[in-house]
């Protein structure tokens, strides 16, 4: 379980929004050192939470970027890639890649879309608004953008 204070979540959102450490410090009226130290603490917590989620889901870890709030892994049981993300709005989310996803009949289709758009917005990423795009297609676009 990832436990961040409201202040830490604010710092996380500001950093994800593209503000520099100096800009965050100025905006909040605190020192750059305080921002840097807080962000290090937050990223450490995010890192540990991503690893815990991977272990709980039996996911082999391939790559972690705590600054971006993403872990890329492999599910041997499902034989597929897995993306684990953290956002201030939705917390930890686990995404299993679907090659032939049947999103149309999935009861979570709209929830997945909403969460993917939230994840993108927090990171300043623009996703296509086409209604016919499946969540699995949106996820592929989003994760490609996050990972660069």
- Count of distinct structural domains: 1
What is the beta-strand fraction?
Answer: 15-25%
Spatial arrangement of strands, main beta sheet: 1-2-3-4
Fraction of residues in H or I helices? 40-55%
Distance between the termini: 27 Å
Shape: globular
Q: Report the uncertain regions.
A: none
Major sheet description: 4 strands, antiparallel
Would you list the SSEs in sequence order as H and E?
HHHEEEEHH
* Radius of gyration over all CA atoms, rounded: 16 Å
> Helix/strand-derived class?
alpha+beta
**Tally of DSSP helical segments:** 5
Total number of strands:
4
What integer is the average pLDDT? 92
Explained architecture:
The chain is α+β, with helices and mostly antiparallel strands and 148 residues long. It has one domain (6-147). Helix content is 48%, strand content 18%. It contains 5 helices and 4 strands, in the order αααββββαα. The protein has helices at 6-16, 21-28, 32-56, 109-122, 135-147; strands spanning 60-65, 70-75, 80-87, 91-96. A 4-stranded antiparallel beta sheet has the order 1-2-3-4, sandwiched between helices. Helix 2 (21-28) crosses helix 3. The radius of gyration is 16 Å and the shape is globular.
